[in-house]
Each structure stands twice: as structure tokens, then as C-alpha cells.
Amino acid sequence: MNAPEPQVIRMYEARQEIYPREAKGRYASLRWLCVWLTQLAFYGLPWLTWNGRQAVLFDLTTRKFYLFGLVLWPQDFIYLAALLIICAWLLFLVTAVAGRVWCGFACPQTVYTEIFLWIERKIEGPRSARMALAKQGPSLRKFSKRTAKHLAWGLVALWTGFTFVGYFTPIKVLGAESFTLAFGPWEWFWVLFYALATYGNAGWLREQVCKYMCPYARFQSSMFDRDTLIVTYDAKRGEPRGKVAKDTGLSVNGGSCIDCTMCVQVCPTGIDIRNGLQYECIGCAACVDACNSVMDKVEQPRGLIRYSTDRALATGMSAQDIRRRAMRPRVLIYTAGLLLVVIAVASSLVLRTPLKMDVIRDRGSMGREVDGGAIENVYRLQIMNTTEQPHRYRIVAAGLPGLVLATTDEVTLAGTETRAVPIRLRAPHGAGQAGSNKITVQLTALDDPALTVKETAVFIVPR
Length: 463
What we know:
The protein is of the alpha+beta class and about 475 residues long. The chain is built from 16 helices and 16 strands.
């Protein structure tokens, strides 16, 4: 008796190379608009100047973060947490209303894949030429085209890595260092790391990032409902599909879909939207543009593939009904939550005092008696001027009768300067009870009385 043939079970599907056809139409134009806007912002912001310095700079060396006229310090990291919360709420809101439009139009993976595909098309030609080139054996023509493509990809990736590091090291300094390759070790690491990530993700992995590496594709369904706008295929109108009948413009089987597969050829993830909603769909609407162009050629109404909702397809809702259903409880809750967080953060930034002070008592001295029987305590004021203008401040202490400064009561700080200022406070004999006494230390800018901060401290009277 012959042994059964061994069966090979593959845990992962082998990758099928995808050669997306270029799509043209309203959504393709919108997608390229997003590419231009995001990349002008990313590549351009580090070169803007503000008050004589880089407008947007996260200076890790000095632990100062410049955002145009706003200067943030490590103590302000709460705003980073707030920003992440705002982004999360905004993602929930946009996804509940319009599905994965972020993925299809503004996600960095989509943006850089579009740029790299544009370079590929310019060098290797349209989809059919690229597929033919891939099937060819080794040749000088194939080698030269592939080499030119990868060199172009590498230059874009290196410039992207350089720009990324320019947000953390002043980009003009970084530019001067690049001519002599005088980068520091960390600068080398991050320029090359980010360049390699861009080159690998946008040039090689492409749809694999969206399908297998991005977690958003896996939990998007939890934010979808029957009223979420998604890219959909109108099966009632399109089926049964078949080849086009020249006399009617419909398929020979009577449906509007003529089975041209253009929607599949333009899809960056290689799916067939006619099979229904799939987690691989990034909502880029390239298939919508492709199908609309085909419908125009066969003189049929557009919209066989379109942005719509599951409920609209099932019940035949109008566009006005779809917009009305958009304002449902889930969307209202997301909107309210987002507005509350934005208002809270904006209010905090507006009311934020650009002056910080910590009062630290010298623990090596519990209070000592000086000439005349007065009691003296020593403190260190850790003062932080978070504005970019210099200020002169006056120090005032209160809380005990006769409490005075035995040191200078004025101090000057340059813009964005932090300084430790030692002070000595004296109180006359009998001014306080033995042990600890609560006092306050106030710091006020002489040129702007509204710029003031008050902190509590403890004055020790020996027993």
C-alpha cells in the first residue's frame, strides 16, 4: 500500500507582485493634492525662520521645543499627550463618517508610495511596460532602468531622512555638515534609518505594510457601521457582469459591469472591490475613478463603484439622506469629545504663564541664627523664562512678620533661559513658631506685572 502524498500547508500566502495602473480622475487629483500639501509642509517647515531661529525645532540637546512663537519644555509634555488624544479622537471621527480616507489620501505610506510609483512610471513606463520588463531576462536595458529607478528612490529617501533629522538638529547646521559628511553618530543613524524605512516601505513593501503591518486595517471594523461611507460596488446595478454589448453599452448579460477589470488594475493593494468590503481596501477611490472613466466610454451613468454606505446600497437612499444619517449619535459623541479636548488644550495654552519657578530649600541647613538674633534660611530658586524675550524679575517673600531677603531681590534672565538663583531669607527673632512655617515666594517681571508666579515654601525656626 502506497503512502499518501505529503501535503504542504503554507502559513502565509506567497506575495503576488502588483503593478498598479495609473488612475486619472477627481479622486486621483485629490490624492495628489494631499501629496503636495503634506510634502510641502514636511520638507518646507524646517526651513522657515521665526524670531531669528528655526520655526519648528525639537531641540533635544537643550530640551526646548519650538513651534513658531510657542516654546515648550519637558515640563510641558502634557501637551504631547493631549495632542495624541486629539489625533485619536479625530481618527475615530473621520473613520466613523468616511471610512479609511486617512489611509487612502494622507497616510505617509500612501503618500510616499504615490511618489515612488510616479518615479517608477516615469522611468519604466506604464503598467504593461513594467510587467513586460519584469518578465524579461537580464539585459543592459533592464539593468539601466532598474538602476535609475532605485537611484531616484534612494535620493528621495535620503532627502526625507535628512529632513526628518532637521526637525531635531537645526537644518541649516545639518546642511552645512552634509557637505563635509561631518554628521554626528546619532545624526548618521537617524538619517540612514529613516531613509531606509522610506525606501523599503514605499519602494518594496508597499501594500504589504497596509495589509500586514498596519494595525489600523485590523480594527477598523470596530469603528464602521452601516452609515459609514466606504468605497462600494453596486451589485444590483452591475450584475450579472459580462463583456460589453456594443449596441447597449451594458454587458451581454444585462448588468452595467462589463468585466474590464480596470478597478482591479488600478488598486494599489490588488483587491477586487466587486467582492465586497475587504480589510485590504484603503479607501483611495482609484477604482472609482477607473470605473467612472469606463462608464463614460460606454455611455452609462457613473457611480457603479462609488463612495456610499451599506445602508444606502440596501435601501436606495439618496445623497441627501446619506448626509442626514452622517449626524448620528456615534458621530456626535466623537465630535463632542474632540471639541472638549481641543477647547481644554487651547484654553490651557492661552492661560499658560510663560514663567516657571521652583523653590528648593537648602536641606543642609535647617535654619540658623545670625547677627542680631535673626533666623536665616537658604533657598535655591529654579527659574525658567519660557518666553523668547529677556525679562528682569523682582523677588518678594511673605508669610512671616519682618521676613526680608538678605540677597538681591532682582534677577535678569535672557529669553528661554533657565537659572538657579540662591537666596537667603531672614526673619526677626520671635517672628514665627518653632519648627516649620509656611511662606510664599513671588516672582514678578518688572516690565510686565501680569507675568508673575507664586510658590509656597517652608521657613524653619530652630527650637
